[in-house]
Structures are given as structure tokens and as C-alpha cells.
Amino acid sequence: MALLFSLAAVAATLSSSVSAAATSGDLNILSFNVAGLPAILNDNAVPGDKATNAEHFNYHAYIYATDDHSYRTATSGGAAIGSGLNTLSNFDWIDFAREKWGTCSDASGADCLTPKGFTFMRLIVEEDAGTEAGDEVARAANLQQVADYIDTWSIGNSVVVYGDTNSRYTRSADGITVFETQNGLTDGFVQLEKGGVNPTVETICDNPSLINTCETVDKVLYRGSKQLSLEATYFNYESSKFLQSDGSILSDHNPITVNFTWAVSSTRRQSGFWGGPHGNWFNDLESLPATPKASVLSFRGGSRLDSVGLTLTSGTTLTHGGTGGTAASLTLGSSEYWVTAKLCQGQKSGQTRNFYILATTSLGRTLAAGTSTSDCATFSAPSGWQIVGFMGQDGDEMDQLAFIYAPK
Questions:
Q1: Which phi and psi (to 5°) does residue 51 adopt?
Q2: β pairing state of 351-361 and 366-370
């Protein structure tokens, strides 16, 4: 069983995840923005050598040379080429993507010098810029771009957004509240240090900061889901842990840490994914009634798997994919449940897609569609559970697919 949630890094790093056997645990995020442009362009008033301080953009290799995290994103390039964003993690992810800002501003500096933006991934839980008018407009557009991306690619998922937002709650034109109002995210700083009330009086943090009640532009925001709950339990500016040997700062930003406790839902689980990260994201979690049960399975397939669908006893119909191929259906009995699904994947037009599905019920009856390949995986609901929905990505065919489980 794989449990996933979405992560959007506005600017910095992350770590997270746990073993498949666990149903609860802790997740730690460290966000640290560093002045990685060549010193001739920007020294950010930080003493010391940039390579020694392991700052990013042009100094990426110095970080990775001594890092021992198991999973690390590849650099997107140095200054003027890359975004300077990377993730180091003890645990794996899928569907990693880099998104460039649609709007930038040079009103107070050279923010358009390099292709800044945000990164996105589905993490497997199992295993200050200027304030000119142009800057404010660009910043609000950037945050809106992330919020819209979440609405499209993280439907039904737990989400963590973290990094340098260049925004403050006391500057309404920044638009930082869009994550709260549009995506239902909670700011760990506001929750734990401000009693849940957004700051209305600007407080500037010293660097290094010795208190947690001042506000920086670096944020960690989150939400849980019906499948995986998240709760922020700890917030701290980890400034004393990121200093040079002489006590000087490493960056003009204070690094921040937020600890989350997470727990798997007692009524919803999911399988791992099979296929490729193409097409449009979908997730049936929000469409399921309190006690779902499949009554009819409906697939379409030919050379590949065109669509998957099921009708619940409540009357809700869930269908994903296209209209090609040959239709096949299976009506389940009142005490019969869908318990196992075999998927086979292959290559079509240079992309990985699902070619075949074989569903098996609790009575041993089967329904198949598509064409089998040699690259297959079987997903079985835990004992006492059943398959009641889907999540993944689709278009005219089934690109990526996972299954939602609920108790019988």
C-alpha cells in the first residue's frame, strides 16, 4: 500500500516519509533559502565563501558532495539557466515537475534573471524581494499560479507548500492568503505561533532569530485529506543550527522547520500507482459516500486500456479515460466485493500507459480489458477492505492509475 500527498516547493528543500507498515508517524520539513547567485551578482550581505557555505544555483555540487539523502532531485542548472530549487529526502516520490513562473518583475531587482518558479512531486508516505507595485503584482500572480496548480493536480490529496514566498500577511497585495481561501491550507507559523490569527502588524525577524513570533517571508502551509491526516505540532527558526564556524550566518534567510504528525484514515486507503504521469489528474476520494460499495464494474479496452469505471450501490458512477475500445462490465452480488486488480503497462508514442486491467472479486469472478504486457503489477485490498474508486491521470486512454480502498 502506498500513501501519497502533494508537495509544492516555492523555494527550498524538504524531507519526509515512513514505512508501509506504519499507520501514523512524524514528517519533518526543513525550508532554507540561500543566496546562490554568483557573488559578483548578489552577495546578500552574507559573509564567507559561497562555495564553502554550500549555497545553491552555481554551488549545487558543493551541497550534494557531502549530502547522504537517498533521494535527490537533479539540478536544473546554474544561474540564468536553472531555478535554484532542489529537494533532498530520505524517501521516494513520483511525478516530479518543475514549473516556471508565468509572471516576473525586475521593478526592484533582477528577479527575471533566472527562471524561478516552483517544483511539484507526489511524496510516497510508506515507505525579501522588492515591494514596488510591479513586484506586488508579480508576486500575487505567482502565488495564484501555485494555488491554481494545486486545484488541478492535488484534488483529494494532502498537500504541503513550503519555501520562500517573498510575502507577508501584513502586505495584502502579496496575496499570501490565497492558499487559505482557495486551497484550504493552514500556515504552521500562524497556527502554532499566532494562535491561528494572521498577523496584522509587521514584525521583522533578526538573523539569526532567537524568537519564533516574528514573521519571515518563508512559509510552510499544509492540509490533510480524507485518506491521510496532517497536523502541525512544532515550528522553529533553526537559525542556531545553520551558522558558520565563526558564528556568522549562512544565508540572509532564517531556516524554518515544521514537524507534522500524520495518520492513515480508518476508512480510506490507496494502492500504489502503475502507468505514466501523463494526462489529467483525477481522484475519486471526494466523490465517495460514507460507506461505498461497488455494484457494477465497467471497463473499455482494445490494444490498450481505454477507460475504467464503476457504479456504486449509492448510484454514483465513477468513470475515467476515453470512449475507445470494447466495453466490458460485471455486475456484483450484494455480498460480492472487488478485491484485486492487475495492471499491465507499456509504451505508446514515447509515453508509459496502462495497457490492461484484470479485476477479481471476492467470489473469484473476473473482468478484463485491454492487452496484457510483460510489465505488470497486482494490487490487492487489505484484508477486510474492497476497491471502491480510482485516482491517477487520464486522457483518451488510461495513463496512470491507482485504486482507493474502503472497509467492506
A1: -65, -45
A2: antiparallel
Can you give the pTM of this predicted structure?
0.80
CATH 3.60.10.10 domain locations along the chain = 3-264
d(CA 96, CA 348): 21
What's the CA angle centered on 61, arms 57 and 66, to 5 degrees? 130
Q: Assign domain 269-407 to its CATH superfamily.
A: Jacalin-like lectin domain (2.100.10.30)
pLDDT in tens, 207-254: 999 999 999 999 999 999 999 899 999 999 999 898 888 888 888 889
Using CA atoms, how far apart are residues 75 and 56, in angstroms rounded to an integer?
Answer: 9
Where does residue 19 rank: exposed (0-12), middle (13-18), buried (19+ CB within 10 A)? exposed
249: DSSP letter: B
Nearest to 33 by CA among 146, 116, 130: 116
For CATH 2.100.10.30, the residue range(s) in the chain are: 269-407
**Does domain 3-264 fall into CATH 3.30.470.20?**
no
pLDDT in tens, 110-161: 667 777 788 888 877 654 444 555 667 877 888 999 999 999 999 999 999 9
pLDDT band with cut points at 50, 70 and 90 for residue 18: very low
User: pLDDT of 172-187, one tens digit each?
Assistant: 889 999 999 999 999 9
C-alpha cell at 187: 500556515
Cell (9 digits) for 318: 465513477
How big, in percent rounded to 5, are the helix, strand and coil portions of the chain? 10, 40, 50
Partners of 218 in the β-ladder? 164
